[in-house]
Amino acid sequence: MQNGYTALVTGASRGIGQAIAQQLAADGYKVLTPSRAEMNLESSKSINFYLSSLHQRVDILVNNAGINRIAALDEVNDKDLQDTLQINLVAPLQLIRTVALGMRENKFGRIVNISSIWSVVSRAGRISYSMSKAAINGMTRSLAIELAPFNILVNAVAPGYVLTDLTRHNNSEAELQKIGETIPLQRLADPAEIAEVVAFLCSHKNTYLTGQTIIVDGGYSCL
Prior knowledge:
Blueprint: E1 6-9, H1 15-26, E2 30-32, H2 44-52, E3 60-63, H3 78-106, E4 109-114, H4 127-147, E5 152-159, H5 165-170, H6 173-181, H7 191-202, E6 213-216
Parallel strand pairs: 1-2, 1-3, 3-4, 4-5, 5-6
Helix pairs in contact: 1-7, 2-3, 3-4
């Protein structure tokens, strides 16, 4: 085990989160991957209950879980907006607020917030999602400053198009090919490629990089 360190990864049942959890486990960390039944990010009470039941310090936190309910301006309803902000923004802050207590005491911590390319560029129907992810970037910068004296590094990773099972389910092979043609590298990312970036940010190899939003999009946002 990596120096006996424990990593907590949200949204690890599939896709990018699953790849991150697998990579961290391969790197020797004890990895906690709570299910929705164990920790429902829609409920502050559920989050607090899960964290209070851990009885161990969390050294690495990866806030990966998120939702993206696509809706145009005149279709956005208050419930969807509140749910998106709660899961994508408020829950990560609540988790950080608690786990940072142990990190401060240990003078070590690594926090990675999974943002999105849609936090720096956007498209129609991404109002709530882009708002939440842009706020994650701002939160990352602020917390990086506040937690730096305790050797806690806080960064965000903003993936572009990633070839997950959900992406395959929502798009035909022809549509996936068309998406790939819009990306300078001419393909979607594999989840493992995102996980590698996250793993570096979580590791002892990262000693000075903090407060950054790292875009991993094959050059898409450069266009």
